[in-house]
Structures are given as C-alpha cells and as structure tokens.
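Training component of the fellowship. As part of building independent skills, the fellow (R.M.) carried out the full modelling exercise for a liganded target. The chosen ligand was EPS. The inputs are recorded below so that the supervisory panel can assess the work.
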Amino acid sequence: LRYLTSGESHGKSLVAILEGIPSNLNIDIENINKELSRRQQGYGRGERMKIEKDKINILSGIRGNITIGSPIAIEIKNKDYENWEKYMKTTGEIDIQSKKVTKARPGHADLVGALKYDFEDIRNVLERASARETAARVAVGAICKEFLSKFNIDFTSHVVQIGKQKIQKSFFFDYIKEKSELSQVRCVDENFEKLFIEEIKKGKEEGDSLGGVFEIIIKNVPLGLGSYAHYDKKLDSTLSAHLMSIQGIKGVEFGIGFEIASLRGSVVQDEIYYSDEEGIYRKTNNLGGIEGGVSTGEEIIIRCVMKPIPTLYKPLNSIDINTLKNYKASIERSDNCAVPAASVVAENVCAFVIAKFFLDKFSGDNMNDIITNYKNYIERL
Ligand code: EPS
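Fellow's submitted model of the complex:
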C-alpha cells in the first residue's frame, strides 16, 4: 500500500493516488467527506475554513462504490483558487509580484525551502509546505479506514493539552469517540474544554499562536502486525515516522511514553494473563499496545506534540531572503491553533499505516482472500 500527494494550498486542487487497496471493497463516500469535514473543525482555525467545504472527488479506481484493485486517484478542489488563479495557475502568465513573500517566518519551511530550492519567492515553498496538504492525506486515510472497518478496527482521538493546560486523567475509547466529536477543541473534559478555548483566545488576542498534545487510540488491531525481526518493519517506528511527517508535529510517544523513564521495570511492563473467557490478556497497557515493534492486540495508544503555528500576528525577527536585511517576518493568513485538526489528521495517517501492515500480514488482491487469511490466523491464535 502506498500513496503520493500533490497540490498547493491555493492551487486548483489537492490530489492523491492510493495504490494497493484490494478489490471488492465497498466505499461509502459520505464517510470520507465526514473525515474531511472533521479535519476542518476546531476552535482556533483561521478564516480559510469558512471558504472551503472539502469534498472528495474520486477520479478512478472505483466503479459504482466498489474498488476494482486499481490505483485510486482522488481530488479535493480548493474553493479559494477562484481568488488565487491569477497568482497560482500552472501555465500562462501569472502575477508573481502581488503575492511575493521574501521575509521568512521562523519555524516554517520558508527559509530552508527557499535556500534549498533556489527561490527568490517564498510563496513557492509555503504553498506546498502548508498544512492544507493534510486534506489529501485525510482522504487517503479515510479510504483505509473504510477497509479496516471491515475488521472492526476503529480510531478515535482527543486533545489532552493546549498551551499550559494539561489533562492528566485517562478515558475509555467509547467515551472519547463520543465526547470528542461534540467539543470545539476535541476535549472530552468540560472544564478543560473551557480552559483550552480560553488559552487559544488569549493567545490570539496577543497576536500569538498555540500548540499542544493530542492522543490517538486505535482498537481491535490484531496481535501480530509489524515485526521484531526487521528494523524497517516495526509498527511503532513506522507509525512514528508517518506521524512526524504531519506539519508541526515535534514528538511522538506510545502508551505512558516519556513517563517510563522515572518508573521501574516491574511497574512499566504489562503483565500477561490467560483465562478461558478472555484468552491471553493484560490488565495494564503502559506500552501502548506494541511490544518489540509488533501489535499486542491491546489498544494502540499514541500521543503527539504539535508546536505552535509559526505565522504570528506579532511577527518575530527575521531577514529578507533577497536583501539579507533584518525585518519582521511576513504575515500569512493562518490558524492560531490547529491541534484539534491535527488529531483528526493523525487518526487518518495512522489508518494508512495500520492498513499497510494489515495488508502485509493478510495479503490478497481481493477482500474475500484477505478475509479468509484473517479468519484463519485469528482462529489459530
Ligand atoms: C489549512 C492549513 C493552514 C491554513 C490554510 C489552510 O495552512 P498553513 O500550514 O499554511 O498555515 O491556514 O489556509 C491558508 C493558507 C489560507 O489561505 O488561509 C488547512 O488545513 O486547510
């Protein structure tokens, strides 16, 4: 399973090609559009989200809602393109000057991108480095979710920290799944929800931005995805790499994560039990459902930290990349906190990785063969 995305933030469309989805999978397009809409939500999002109503346009690889085993090509149109066509169209004369950006924003790809690709105009960088690209990745992940749902694998996520406000409690999957969708900041605790909104509001009033931490929980992943034997087939390292590739993500931890450092082995490891009713099971899940790079069958629990958005309305010191003179960084229309949106992106990015590992283990060109392989394995377990 693999995919590629293309598209600029204010270009005509975001596109992706997903290859490796088996044939005879029923795709409900409304489920994919729902994921795209979830990604657009969240207190702290900017004005752009009022313009866009992201919807998937499936160009190939599916006939009458059923996959045919061919690469699936998708498109998400940028509505804002109407306002940007004369600056962004791919061919013909364009107006570069009016939208030229030369004062790099610290923390964005602006400086490194312009120097590396030899640009005098940072717009060539920021258009592609923009987190708008995650809309294409959510659409890809949502197709993977459709596949995984046939095996009862389910995803949820919630925000556990914004700025200095941090939730310490843990919650059950079903509770998070229900409550997070009702909250503007994907927060399942009503008191913290208010505190999160307050933090974001205060930040915005002060021309500043905020980051935070979100948690993803994946349930019903069978024991045995990934490998202890091959460094490049470990489930946790692959999930980390894909999560770290989401714009703004600076760290990933599994289970109780960095807290492990202060605890003894006797406390950290998840003891193993057996009963006739439950089979093999654990009473704790400190390692977050992965041991030796392989899924244990427990819930996979991952936390990611997202840095504050680099575009600041009270800009930081920077330089003009062409004159090298000192200036304040430029201001682009932007979000001031996108942690809730990033948690939705992360769910879908994980869905791609889980689907990939699932297909590696239970491989087949069509749904029937994969279901047979899966059932045989589960029976042996
Ligand atoms: C967007 C993510 C952010 C938005 C963007 C849409 O991108 P960036 O990483 O560049 O800050 O602010 O919207 C705009 C670029 C705009 O014109 O407002 C997204 O997730 O769709």
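The panel noted the following from the submitted structure. The mean pLDDT is 97. DSSP finds twelve helices and 17 strands in the chain.
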